[in-house]
């Protein structure tokens, strides 16, 4: 700065200033990305300067299946298992798109993690089968799939499911439920199991408030993520808007995959701690979720960089 000051006193110099290094904000060329308010809220464009993912990081999608022919998902889908069955309702396809729709391919939308292996585990249609879910979790454990997204749940407690999640050992992302009730008093499973590898996710609005339908609980729901008016992949190569904690959870699953691609050596407890401790705090969410705020992917990556 001393050199700048000296130059400013020279009669032939109009002005002088330092040559600042500016940040690049990596915006994908996908035509519908401007409608993804959730990506802006979680500061994904800033996070994409650090990483956009890796095909070596696998996220299992336990859901209604995935449209295996969707042009925005095809190149990220991991195929070849008995679980690979087509989606009939669109729910699983929408979830998969938020996690990992291919970014910067000039098609549709971009997921939180542009490059990722999406493993399709169909466990039902509109009603999910507990035995199928346990079989999928066991398969994921056997094949060391590090992250599972679970946008489903119910009020019934299952010791077998809780044990399967514990034995799985990877990061298990679960939606908190859509009854607008407190999970601390009326648990929703699997989100409310006390397994240390679970992240339970509530739905937030563009105003960083809790969605009216979202379950909550300062002792049992970990974090909020965008879950209203979420645009993502739909059946037959299309796109649609959906609401729900089902839409919030995959934002967190995609964030976990992005973090894993950036710092492959992180353990499950470390990934969970980084995601929760980097949440953007909001008074409206204090006392509603344990982290007191909304997923912030850029803050997550900054914390991982400095760790």
Question: Brief overview, please?
Answer:
The protein is of the alpha/beta class. It contains 9 helices and 11 strands.
Please explain how this structure is put together.
This protein has helices at 2-8, 37-41, 44-47, 91-100, 130-142, 159-168, 245-262, 268-277, 297-306, and strands spanning 53-63, 77-78, 115-122, 147-150, 171-175, 198-204, 223-226, 230-233, 239-242, 280-281, 293-294. With 307 residues, it is α/β, with parallel strands linked by helices. A seven-stranded parallel beta sheet has the order 2-3-1-4-5-6-7. Strands 8-9 form a two-stranded antiparallel ribbon. It has a two-stranded antiparallel ribbon with strand order 10-11. The protein starts with a helix and ends with a helix. Residues 19-24 have low confidence and may be disordered.
Give the helix/strand class: alpha/beta
Proportion of strand residues: 15-25%
The low-confidence runs, each spanning 5 or more residues with pLDDT under 50, are: 19-24
| N to C succession of SSEs | HHHEEHEHEHEEEEEHHEEH
Main sheet: which strands, in order across? 2-3-1-4-5-6-7
Q: How many distinct helices? A: 9
Overall 3D shape = globular
Notable features of this structure?
single chain, 307 residues, alpha/beta, 7-stranded parallel sheet, two-stranded antiparallel sheet, 9 helices, 17% strand
């Amino acid at each position: 700065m001393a050199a700048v000051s000296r130059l400013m006193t020279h009669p032939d110099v109009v002005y002088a200033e330092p040559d600042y290094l500016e940040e690049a904000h990596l915006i994908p060329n996908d035509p519908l990305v401007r409608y993804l308010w959730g990506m802006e809220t979680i500061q994904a464009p800033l996070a994409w300067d650090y990483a956009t993912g890796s095909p070596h990081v696998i996220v299992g999608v336990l859901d209604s299946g995935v449209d295996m022919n969707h042009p925005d998902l095809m190149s990220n889908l991991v195929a070849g298992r008995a679980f690979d069955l087509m989606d009939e309702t669109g729910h699983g396809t929408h979830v998969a798109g938020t996690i990992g729709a291919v970014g910067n391919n000039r098609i549709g939308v971009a997921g939180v993690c542009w490059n990722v292996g999406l493993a399709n585990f169909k466990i039902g249609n509109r009603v999910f089968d507990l035995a199928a879910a346990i079989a999928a979790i066991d398969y994921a454990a056997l094949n060391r799939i590090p992250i599972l997204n679970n946008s489903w749940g119910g009020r019934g407690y299952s010791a077998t499911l809780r044990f399967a999640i514990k034995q799985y050992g990877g990061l298990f992302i679960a939606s908190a439920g859509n009854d607008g009730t407190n999970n601390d008093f009326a648990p929703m499973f699997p989100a409310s199991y006390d397994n240390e590898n679970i992240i339970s996710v509530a739905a937030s609005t563009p105003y960083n408030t809790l969605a009216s339908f979202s379950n909550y609980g300062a002792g049992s729901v970990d974090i909020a993520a965008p879950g209203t008016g979420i645009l993502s992949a739909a059946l037959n190569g299309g796109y649609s808007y959906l609401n729900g904690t089902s839409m919030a959870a995959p934002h967190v699953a995609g964030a976990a995959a992005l973090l894993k691609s950036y710092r492959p050596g992180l353990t499950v407890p470390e990934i969970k701690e980084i995601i929760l401790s980097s949440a953007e705090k909001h008074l409206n969410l204090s006392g509603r979720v344990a982290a007191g705020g909304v997923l912030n992917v850029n803050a997550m990556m900054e914390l991982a960089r400095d760790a």
